[in-house]
């Protein structure tokens, strides 16, 4: 070991980190080396003086503490707001998915309802046509004047139509009388062939 | 000094946002942290600002404190990082090439050397020592200050600096050797007297 190595041991001894074996070795060296003895002596002087140095104290510790408290309170408030925001942002995809699901369910519910309504409307209009025809038949069967007028109108219109199409063999208006409603016939008009499918 | 159990209790309360619990926690450390930063920067204003920043960082980072080390060690680590970042920034601003070496103190109390007429030999020695300490390279000054001024063990200093105990021990030895070199004129004069 050379002097610089022993100087490291001197430093370790000052910190109380020297093993007894190395301490013995250092002591043996110091007995023979004046330079290292002086080194240790001077380090001890410096160390003693360092301990005497005044501590640099903050000029206004209370003031610093007050400023710090103020900044901490502000920072704590900001953190709370940020945490709330970040919580919302973190759950944003879930919120979006939930809202999408709700919107989809509402849309489907309305679509089904509207289809049902359309179906009901068709049936209602059909039923209304049958009812009207039945009412008309009943009215005509009770009012002879009206019946005659109706038959006349029907015959006229059929005649006009056939004439327009240029069909042969149907020259007389009387050929179409069977299309008219006979008051004396006790027929169920709805069960006859009146242009509607059976059972409707 | 706060007991370990009480310290953990205060940490937990501060984590939940109790500012007063945090203030109690740091009250004992504010002045020592200020002193360490002042030793490293040599500027009272910077020391006050960086102490505040250290405490704010500590408050914000409490969730990361795992209590593996003591709160004191953890706080010192934050203070050291804050100070080194600040010094690094100053160096960059000044366009220095050297990294964190030989920071000259800006505090007149550290920079000025009183004339022999103004002071006794002891005063001169004291001023010389302050200057010598301030002129140590930051990495050596840091290790030396943590142990000699802050009263940390070498193991705690190693934790703060993120290095081995052997490295801390070596840096302290080097700091002592440099101090002795810088103090040689004063030591010679003392011997002459």
CATH T-level fold name of the largest domain in chain B: Rna Polymerase Sigma Factor, Chain: A
CATH homologous superfamily assignment of the largest domain in chain B: RNA polymerase sigma factor, region 2, helix turn helix motif
Low-confidence parts of chain B, pLDDT < 50 over ≥5 residues? none
Based on DSSP secondary structure assignment, what is the total number of beta strands of chain B? 0
> Which term fits the overall shape of chain A?
rod-shaped
User: Helix- and strand-based class of chain B?
Assistant: mainly alpha
H and E string of chain A: HHHHHH
Q: Tally of extended strands of chain A?
A: 0
Give the % helix of chain A: over 70%
**Taking all residues together, what is the mean pLDDT of chain A?**
79
Description of the molecule:
- The complex is a heterodimer of chains A (200) and B (193).
- Chain A has helices at 3-14, 20-32, 34-52, 61-90, 92-142, 144-165.
- Chain A is an all-alpha fold.
- Chain A folds into two domains: 3-52, no CATH class; 96-200, no CATH class.
- The radius of gyration of chain A is 58 Å and the shape is rod-shaped.
- The termini of chain A are far apart.
- The model of chain A is unreliable at 189-196 (pLDDT under 50).
- Chain B has nine helices and no strands.
- Chain B has helices at residues 4-15, 19-41, 44-60, 71-94, 108-111, 121-134, 138-148, 154-161, 165-192.
- Chain B has two domains: 1-100, RNA polymerase sigma factor, region 2, helix turn helix motif (Rna Polymerase Sigma Factor, Chain: A), CATH 1.10.1740.10; 103-193, Arc Repressor Mutant, subunit A (Orthogonal Bundle), CATH 1.10.10.10.
- The interface between A and B is large, with 35 and 40 residues.
């Amino acid at each position: 070991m050379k002097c610089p190595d022993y100087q490291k041991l001197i430093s370790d001894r000052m910190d109380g980190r020297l093993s007894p074996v190395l301490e013995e070795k250092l002591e043996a060296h110091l007995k023979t080396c004046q330079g290292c003895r002086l080194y240790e002596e001077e380090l001890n002087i410096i160390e003693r003086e360092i301990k005497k140095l005044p501590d640099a104290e903050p000029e206004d510790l209370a003031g610093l503490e007050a400023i710090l408290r103020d900044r901490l309170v502000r920072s704590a408030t900001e953190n709370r707001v940020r945490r709330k925001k970040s919580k919302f942002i973190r759950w944003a995809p879930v919120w979006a998915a939930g809202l999408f699901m709700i919107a989809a369910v509402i849309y489907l519910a309305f679509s089904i309802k509207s289809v049902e309504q359309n179906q009901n409307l068709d049936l209602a209009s059909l039923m209304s046509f049958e009812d009207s025809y039945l009412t008309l038949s009943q009215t005509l069967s009770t009012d002879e004047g009206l019946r005659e007028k109706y038959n006349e109108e029907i015959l006229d219109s059929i005649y006009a139509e056939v004439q327009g199409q240029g069909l042969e063999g149907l020259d007389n208006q009387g050929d179409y009388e069977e299309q008219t409603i006979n008051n004396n016939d006790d027929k169920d008009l709805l069960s006859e062939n009146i242009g509607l499918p059976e059972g409707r | 000094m706060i007991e370990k159990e009480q310290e953990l209790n205060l940490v937990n309360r501060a984590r939940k946002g109790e500012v007063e619990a945090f203030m109690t926690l740091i009250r004992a450390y504010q002045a020592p942290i200020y002193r360490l930063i002042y030793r490293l920067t040599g500027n009272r204003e910077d020391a006050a600002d960086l102490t505040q920043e250290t405490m704010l960082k500590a408050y914000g980072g409490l969730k990361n404190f795992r209590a593996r080390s003591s709160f004191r060690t953890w706080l010192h680590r934050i203070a050291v990082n804050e100070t080194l970042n600040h010094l690094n920034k100053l160096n960059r601003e000044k366009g220095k090439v050297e990294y964190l070496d030989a920071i000259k103190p800006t505090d007149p109390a550290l920079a000025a050397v009183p004339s022999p007429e103004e002071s006794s030999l002891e005063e001169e020695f004291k001023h010389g020592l302050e200057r010598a300490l301030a002129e140590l390279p930051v990495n050596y000054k840091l290790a030396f200050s943590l142990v000699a001024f802050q009263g940390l063990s070498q193991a705690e200093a190693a934790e703060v600096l993120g290095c081995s105990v052997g490295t801390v021990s070596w840096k302290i030895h080097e700091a002592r050797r440099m101090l002795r070199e810088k103090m040689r004129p004063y030591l010679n004069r003392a011997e002459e007297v």
